[in-house]
Structure formats: C-alpha cells, structure tokens
Amino acid sequence: MEKSEQDNLCVECAPRENVELTTIRAERMVDEMREKASSANVFKGEIERKQTICPECGKPPGGGKFCNNCGASIALTKCPNCGNKVSIGTRFCGESGTKLN
Fold it and tell me: Does residue 46 contact residue 39 with C-beta atoms inside 8 Å?
C-alpha cells in the first residue's frame, strides 16, 4: 500500500480533494436552484383566449390586413404618446394608458 508522503494517506484509498470539492459545489448549486424555483412567482390565473374582431362589422376578420367580411382595414396603428402598436378600435394604449381616438 503506497502512501502519500505529504498527507500520510493511502494513495489508492484517500479521497481526492478536487473531486470531492467539485461534487460539493455541484450539490450546493442544485440546492440553490431548488430554493429559487420554490420561491419563484408562477402565474396561476386563468388564460383568456381572445379573437380579433373587425372594428367595422364586428366579425372575425381572418388572417390578412383587411376584413374578409366587409373589407375594412384591420392594420395596427401606433399610440401617439409612446409609439406602441395597437389594434384599431382600442380605446386606451396598453403601454402608456393614453386615450386613443
């Protein structure tokens, strides 16, 4: 049985410090991740499904820039205050709260 001259330990049986330290660090990182995950805020409300409605005829307009039912434009406009894109017919900007005409 060969012994380490510095530590007086068996070279084959003694724990390797770098391996043990790496294992301990990895376990600590996992513990920290679990702690953060357990305290994270998760959305628990209801998810609403909303459908685009044509501002002119009130029907679903389809997937283009114009309503499939009446031909009205359904393109997005910009908020005059912040430049956020909003749907035609929207009364207030969702970003700045600006009243839209």
Answer: no
